[in-house]
Please model this.
Amino acid sequence: MRGRSEAAGQGGGGRSGGALRAVPKVVWLLAAGSFVNMVMAFTFVYLFVYLTDGRGLSTAGAGTVAGLGGIGLVAGNFTGGWFGDRFGHRRTLLTGAAVSGAGLVALPALPTAALLLVLPVCQYAAGTVRAANSALVAETVPPGDRRQGFAVMRFASNAGFTVGPPLGALVATHWSYEWLFRADGLGSLLFAVYAARVVTAGRPRSRPAAARSGLWTALRARPALLVLLPAIVVVDTVYRQQYSTLPVFLADHGIGTGVYGLVLAVNGGAILLLELPATVALRDRAPLRIIGTGLLLVGAGFAALASGASVGTAVVMMLLVTAGEILYKTPATAYVADSAPQEFQGRFQSLYAGASTSGTVLAPPLGGALYQSAPGLLWPLCAGFAALAGLAVFAAARPTAARLRSGRGTADLPRPERSAGGRAAPAGAERDVSIPRS
Model:
């Protein structure tokens, strides 16, 4: 397994190929499983339609049920890492996938009132799966190569989600919406079985004395994270306006659903084509500056909408937002992983996962209320908040850069964990993940 220094010494195609070869086999196997799982993940896309058409709920009632599910998802992301740190990330991954899958399979047969409880539980379990997945990647890939590892996982998930919604439409058309939930649940159950095979249990986890000092103490020792995480919450709330107020804005200006779908396709296609190569090309660059640039680009994308509604501005907006997404999402995930003490890896990943999905709960009500009361302010405020978040991350990068120049260590600077002998600890040592079965 090559570390950062060897890969950095290569050039051209060998440089990219060497960087991706540093990603362990277990991550590629998990990515393959995530791809198949996301292909069958129809619930998120068609939930509202199912609740209104299939269950006969009013728009407000469907919004309540879907909102509770979103709260469960965000809560699972925020807290799933605690289960991983306490009981093991592999066990958390398998349990979450099994609970989510079983609930989704049973959901069509349940009375409508039961959805108020079952859907949040399913979404909570799905959130813990995401946190556990991230923690497994962080604990399997050595520091310096984690950006590539997370980029591989995102590529697989995005590719699966690109295929999934059209396939879901065929399932709903030829069978019923109920079969979407059964297929989604079956996909989660199959993923649990697959993950149990490719990720084996490692040696027992020890609980260092530092773990008893508390999560807040660990975060305070890394002040850049105390800036980055709130910045991600702000930008995710802005970013997810593309799924809530953007289609309403376009429709109000005579731009139909078909164009909106094509604009979203621009995002998906660019992510699949560019994110992995961009991650490899920029892997040796200072992460906070890359992240800050990405947040600024997200703001620039929404600023483009302030000039008016047209197909051209919608495409420009999506290209800028996509460029920002490529620059900030993978490096931010890897930065949090590189910053985490081993005993807090799951909880650090949970904090990032929760921050990066918080917009699913915050964006619709905040954006919808502002668009209804003062539509002309929505896009300038989105641009302004994203720009402030990006500038804050740039400001957080300066102390780190100054400490590097002075040669002084810093607790918030990501660095390889050290073994007792002072050497970099091998990936996976004393952790709850091991190599895949042969």
Observations:
- The chain is about 75% helix and 0% strand.
- The two ends are 17 Å apart (CA to CA).
